[in-house]
Structure formats: C-alpha cells, structure tokens
Amino acid sequence: MKRLLFLIALVCATTAFAQEKEAKKIAPPAGKALVGDFYGNEVKSKTLKKAVSVAQLNKELDKSTKVEHAVLTGKVTSVCPKKGCWLTVENDKNETFFVKMKDYAFFVPVALEGKNVVLEGVAERKMLSVEEARHYAEDAKKSQEEIDAITEPQEQNRFMASGIKVVQ
Q1: Stated pTM of the model
Q2: Which residues does the chain have with pLDDT short of 50?
Q3: 84 in helix, strand or coil?
Q4: What SS3 state is found at 73?
C-alpha cells in the first residue's frame, strides 16, 4: 500500500513539474532590455556604425527584394506577447519592419517595447499568406473583427535578425 501511494505521489509530482516547465516555455523571456543588452548574436560596435534607418532599408528593398548583411536601427513598437518570437521596428514616419529571429534561435522580452535597437541580419520583401497574417494578428491579440478582416495575402518588409542590441 505504501508503495502504491508513493508511486501515485511520484506520478503527480512529475506531472505537475512537467506542466510548470511547459508553461514557462510559452512566455517571453524575462528581462528589462537595458542599454547594452543583446539577444541572439552580439552586435559589435563597428557594426553599429553601419546601421541604417527603416526608411533607408525600405528604399534598398525597392531596388532588390533581399538585402544580405543588413544592419537596421529603429524603435521597437511591439513584441509578440506569447513568446517574444517576433517584434516590429518603426521610424518616426510610421514605416515599419516586421522582425523574426533567425532559425527561431532566440526570443526577446516584452520590455523591449519602446526601446531603440540595432539589428543585424537579412532584410527581404515577402508575401504573407492570409493564414500567416491572421496568425500574427492573433499573436498580437488583435480583435476577432481585425483578424477576420484579413482576406488577402499581404506584402511585408521583413527582417530576419541574427542579433539585436539595445542602444537607447
């Protein structure tokens, strides 16, 4: 009888621990996103000097649909509240870039919102399917009305970040 009770307690404890661990995986990482913090690969000081604005990178994408070795600077306006797996960067003219993390290798804290960052990676112009656009709208906690309004593929300037550094 004692063995049976011990086994039941062990199974319950293991299940509870596994669920707690799984719940932690779903949230964005903790962090205050202080100046100098970086996510993914470290963005070196010499790279910071090469950073261009959202508007400049958008102009480069008008000439070519992909820019390798891009370095972008801007203000983070939103972070995926589910995992921290994407963010948007904007300039003062409301031009934006949607940013994903290369190879899904790192995530960022929601504290990154409102911070100025420099990102290193690849920029490209891409067509989003209706399903993908709706998925990102759901992640961003848009209303069902806004999600349902997405009925056509959308063109999007996207940045695949290998590293992000907080600069202000």
Answers
A1: 0.76
A2: 4-7, 19-23
A3: coil
A4: strand
How far apart, in whole angstroms, are the C-alpha atoms of residue 47 and residue 69?
10
Gap between the Cα atoms of 24 and 161, Å rounded? 23
| Tokens matching residue 25 | 């995986």
User: What H or E segment, with its residue span, contains residue 75?
Assistant: strand 66-79
Residues in Cβ contact with 135 at an 8 Å cutoff, skipping those fewer than 6 apart = none
Task: Identify whether the C-beta of residue 119 lies closer than 8 Å to the C-beta of residue 89.
Answer: yes
Confidence (pLDDT) at 45:
87
* Intra-chain end-to-end CA distance of the chain, in Å: 62
> For residues 129 and 152, is the Cβ–Cβ distance under 8 A?
no
User: What are 27-46's pLDDT values in tens digits?
Assistant: 788 889 999 999 999 999 88
Query: Tokens representing 71?
Result: 């370095």
